[in-house]
Write a structure and sequence with these properties.
Elements: H1 3-36, H2 43-56, E1 62-64, H3 68-74, E2 83-85, H4 90-107, H5 113-134, E3 140-142, H6 144-169, H7 178-184, H8 188-222, H9 224-234, H10 238-264, E4 269-270, E5 275-277, E6 280-282, H11 308-321, H12 330-354, E7 367-368, H13 371-393, H14 403-420, H15 449-452
Antiparallel strand pairs: 1-2, 1-3, 4-7, 5-6
């Protein structure tokens, strides 16, 4: 595939990702425009709404300005002022990363990988700029620079992950890189320590998120009756129910991260003054989101045991990924265990930052976990557990345990070889009885051979 075709193909991949992301909210909003509002409202209003939802899904701040009559009808203090919406509906960001990974994997199969990646990311940035510019309106105004930067970063992350994975699965197409060559020049102990810390920290954070996803699924199943009751109280029609369900699916990754913050310890808030943590639950009035009905309202007797999740994850990750360091100094395991906590804390803190922010006026300006607390607590818990796991995995291991027997064996073999080649009393080398040895010359007088037999 030549360079021009690669560029065209990569641009099409970027267009496809943007189109899918915006179409998810646009399709139900267009159906509402046609069936519920009977085409009585200009369609660009729904287009701007879909773009705003897509941008919110990537963490872009959107400032709302309610109509004075509507603000007064809500009865919420501060509703008449501009309302910043800063919380992200991370389902859209996750979709962009996954679609970007697919695009990166397909671009890596072309003969001009770097050109394809650059064109795809550049095209996505141009489309994000166009979409954000089209959604600018006094009633809902997204941040222009965030609208270009944040969705493009999500897509670029997916493209790089997909391209790197494709090259790792097909080493024949990997012609090396200066970064890899620079890493290969590190000392072996440094390279193995950094690799262990990165892998263990990422694995520990992934384990906490996985357990959190399972916990959210269980809570939704157990609280299914309450969720349905909240749906019925909203009196939404079919299209309204579909739109509301799609919005909750976009919010689902946020709920998983909130659960991870709960397991770490600091918990999360749904409104100023509220708190949901292992130490206790204090919920005030909740927004009309049916999935929030699955939140437990009572304090479990053993809720504090949830803090064991990051501890166990850090211990197992430290034990599994630091085995290669047993041959090195114990300080290598100390550095790897500490690095594991730092990596895991940074990852969970960044996730908490993405899942927190303002969701509306009044109490809703404070929703989600505190990213600094989550990151700090996660780093401490995972680091201590990873250190314990690293030293538990290396306990009883002696770097020279296998060398001493081999050294004794080598010395014994050398002694045997020396004895084998030492001349005996007749001056004959005792090691000369091999097949290649030359037999000694027979000095027996003729005719006397029978006597020797």
């Amino acid at each position: 595939m030549n360079r021009a075709r690669t560029a065209l193909y990569s641009a099409f991949e970027a267009v496809l990702v943007v189109a899918i992301g915006i179409a998810i909210p646009l399709v139900p909003l267009t159906l509402l425009w046609g069936f519920h509002f009977q085409l009585g409202i200009d369609w660009p209003v729904f287009w701007r709404g879909a773009v705003d939802i897509w941008l919110l899904g990537h963490g872009v701040d959107v400032t709302l300005l309610l109509d004075p009559a509507l603000a007064a009808a809500t009865g919420i203090p501060g509703a008449e002022r501009p309302i910043p919406i800063t919380i992200a509906l991370l389902g859209f960001a996750l979709l962009t990363v996954l679609l970007g990974t697919r695009a990166g994997r397909r671009i890596a199969e072309t003969s001009h990988r770097l050109t394809g990646e650059a064109v795809a990311i550049g095209t996505f940035a141009v489309l994000a700029l166009a979409a954000t510019s089209s959604a600018l309106d006094p009633s809902a105004r997204p941040s222009l620079w965030q609208g270009v930067l944040l969705p493009t970063l999500c897509f670029a992350l997916g493209v790089l992950v997909g391209s790197t994975r494709a090259r790792l699965l097909n080493p024949a197409d990997d012609h090396g890189s200066s970064l890899r060559d620079w890493i290969d020049d590190w000392r072996p102990v440094t390279r193995e320590t950094v690799r262990a810390a990165l892998r263990a920290g990422t694995a520990a954070a992934a384990a906490v998120v996985t357990v959190s996803a399972i916990a959210v699924a269980v809570l939704v199943l157990l609280g299914y009756a309450q969720v349905i009751a909240l749906y019925e109280q909203l009196h939404a029609d079919v299209l309204g129910g579909i739109t509301l369900t799609a919005a909750q699916l976009a919010l689902l990754p946020d709920l998983v991260i909130w659960a991870a913050a709960w397991f770490v310890g600091p918990g999360f808030a749904i409104g100023t003054g509220s708190s949901v943590s292992p130490l206790g639950t204090d919920l005030g009035p909740l927004p009309a989101v049916p999935v929030l009905g699955a939140l437990p309202t009572d304090d479990g007797s053993f809720a504090f045991a949830g803090v064991l999740v990051p501890v166990v994850a850090g211990f197992v990750a430290g034990a599994l990924f630091t085995r290669a360091l047993r041959e090195h100094s114990p300080w290598a395991r100390v550095v790897a265990g500490t690095g594991t906590g730092i990596v895991g804390g940074v990852l969970l803190g960044l996730l908490a930052w993405a899942a927190a922010g303002s969701a509306g006026p009044g109490r809703l300006v404070d929703v989600g976990p505190d990213p600094l607390l989550v990151g700090a607590w996660a780093a401490l818990e995972i680091a201590l557990a990873a250190l314990a796991g690293a030293f538990a995995a290396g306990r009883g291991h002696r770097p020279d345990a296998g060398e001493r027997p081999r050294r004794r064996e080598t010395q014994a073999a050398a002694t045997d070889r020396a004895d084998a080649h030492r001349p005996d009393a007749h001056g004959t080398d005792r090691g000369s009885d091999s097949d290649d040895a030359v037999p000694p010359e027979d000095t027996t007088p003729p005719g006397h051979g029978v006597l020797w037999r």
